[in-house]
Amino acid sequence: MSDATLTLSPTENVIRPQTQVDGHDPSSMISMRDIWKTYQMGTEKVHALHGVSFDIPRGEYIAIIGPSGSGKSTLMNLIGCLDTPTQGQYWLNGKNVSEMDDDELARIRNQEVGFVFQTFNLLARATALHNVELPLIYGGVGSTQRHEMAKQALKAVDLTERMTHKPNELSGGQRQRVAIARALVNHPSILLADEPTGALDSHTSMEIMDLFERLHSEGNTIIVVTHEHDIAERAHRVISIRDGQIEKDERIR
Amino acid sequence: MERSGEHDSKPQRYTFARAVPALIKSLPLFRLAAIWEAFRVATGSLRANKLRTALTLMGIIVGVTAVIAVVTIIKGLDQTVAQTFSSQGSTVFTISKNPQIIKSREEFIKFNRRKDVTHDDAETIGRLCTACWRVGIAANAIETVKYQDQKAENVRIRGVEPLTMFDIDGVSIDAGRVWTDSEGAAGRDICVVGTDMLKNLFGDAPADRAVGQEIRINGRPYTILGVLEPLGSIFGFSRDNVIYIPYSTYQKAYGARRSLVVFIQVPAAEQLEAAEDQVRTVMRTRRGIGTNDKVDDEGFALETQDVFLNLYGAATSNIYIVTIGVAAISLVVGGIVVMNIMLVSVTERTKEIGIRKAIGARRKDILTQFLIEAVVVTALGGAIGVGTGFGLAYVISALIGFPLLVSVASAVLGVGVSSIVGIISGLWPAWRAAKLDPIEALRAE
Question: Is A99 helix (H, G, I), strand (E, B) or coil?
Fold first, then answer.
């Protein structure tokens, strides 16, 4: 089985006997065990992921890198709880999300995951403030508190002056900062960024990466999915994916 | 890795049949904020697509307008009819040669073979009917009336006898006087006019200015003795476009060989049936038919105002049925249009749905959003329909001349029914949106 089971101390074994059975390391923010994702293509079965296992502790800054078709996007969708694995166990902040139904997954995405997308994915007709408030609306936060939290999140990305602007009135970098504020507003367990600089020029890219670094230093757990090595190198640990398997998992800093 | 294939296994399928009870079960759990968000999005997207919204609304507007206008107009007519006939009351019935309503050509031919109702018939009824209170006769002609160079056309000339016919008709004198019995019996050329004559012949002069003036009816001069109180109009026909003359005068001018109508009034509605029986017996005897004989045709028509009221009731209920049919068709078509537009809207906004799902919107949040959007469209259509319906009813009531009765209940019903159409036609598109896979949806452009 996985090596995480071996690292468990006897004390932990006594306190939480089921963790050993599940092979789940309770100290990790993310714990993936033998994850498979299989798609049916016509009569053929295609394994997008076969037997992926890793742990991400709280507060880590990690990059997942791999060429297109490597299974990196599939992995990102699983980490972000947009999808469930065909086989295997996925623990996120102590919750087994691998067997949840759609609405439970929506709840987890709302509370535990902050998404940052390559193309920002903001609502075009809503102001920056409203975009940031959106996760709180679905989280059932009252309007006064919602407003306050959204303003704070925008302050954290230095966009207080622009909060009444709509996305088309903002630059690419500003839009991505709105998206980051939206991702952070619910204080999620992980910040999951999919090619966050893919639509930005190199100067703005550096600004965004600096922002990630700052957010990491403030204690956030950050996962960046990318195919660019210089972006991946800003992280503290890099997991390389190839052909649906982990090729390399190295600490670089 | 592209996900173009189907999922290998899915623990629970989100079927349409399962979505509806789940939605109802979770109704109390809906978050107010999410519903408000749905409202914002709905109104925002309707504003962003004004032309499309307008076209979507058409079917609903037409349906609701039709219902509201017809209901309002018929309510107004009902009131007019009720008021008009209560002024005479249900204590009057008539004997005539032809009934008021002739249903076919065969009937017309049959009625024309009947004997005329004569002055003698009326006299016999008056003598033999003990349950009768007032008995009078009336005969009508339509004439052109002139005063100096003024002219009034299509005026109803009503020859009546005795003077109690004024009471049976429910009219009273406003200025001047009626003729005396001896003046009437002498057949003098005198008359009492309705208020339309003031308007049409005397340039809206006050009633007492017309009294004593001489007018010409079909070339024959008459002196105006009095002017009647106005009665108003019904269905756009004035009831004041009338001139009363003594029956003896009418006979001189138009001859005695015209069938007339006998009016019989009883003191109270309870005596109506007894009086009708007596009069029927008298008339059957005079037409040579035994009281209990079974005959094809009695040779006369005995009618109360119920005949007209029944006809009116049948006509309006037919109008109601036709209107409800038209409304139902437009609402169904409107609902299909709304469903179609909502499906387009869901397709167009797939990306937005993906974003919302990624940040934590559940299926019911998305379902609610699109349902609310559908209901906002149809309720708006309903509200506009109520407005235009009342507007149309207002114009028609002003043209025809009956009171406009705006009912809150029909307005609520109009908006309510169209909202239900919204829910029904929004359910399928909203469910399609709710079950979208967030990954697929995010990939949409």
Answer: coil
pLDDT, tens digit, for every residue of A142-189?
888 999 999 999 999 999 999 999 999 999 999 999 999 999 999 999
In angstroms, the CA B427 to CA B16 distance is 9
Q: CB of A100 within 8 Å of any CB in chain B?
A: no
> How many helices and strands, by DSSP H and E, does chain B display?
16, 13
DSSP A153-205: HHHHTT-GGGTT--GGGS-HHHHHHHHHHHHHTT--SEEEEESTTTTS-HHHH
What whole-number distance in Å separates Cα of residue A151 and Cα of residue A170? Answer: 17
Chain A residue with the nearest C-alpha to that of B37: A137
Residue A250 has φ and ψ, to the nearest 5°, of -130, 145
B298: helix, strand or coil? coil
Task: Report CB contact under 8 Å: B442, A121.
Answer: yes
The CATH code of the domain that includes A220 is 3.40.50.300
When mean pLDDT is compared across A123-137, B31-45, B149-163, B183-197, the lowest value belongs to B31-45
- CA–CA min distance A39, chain B (Å): 6
Query: Which three-class secondary structure state does DSSP give residue B332?
Result: helix
Are A251 and A236 in contact by the 8 Å Cβ rule? The answer is yes
ipTM of the complex model: 0.89
* Chain A residue with minimum CA distance to B44: A125
Positive/negative CA dihedral, B234, B237, B240, B243: negative
pTM: 0.70
**Backbone torsions φ then ψ of B2, nearest 5 degrees:** -90, 145
Number of domains in chain A: 1
Residue A213: which domain range? Answer: 4-251
* Strand B261-265 versus strand A245-251 pairing type: unpaired
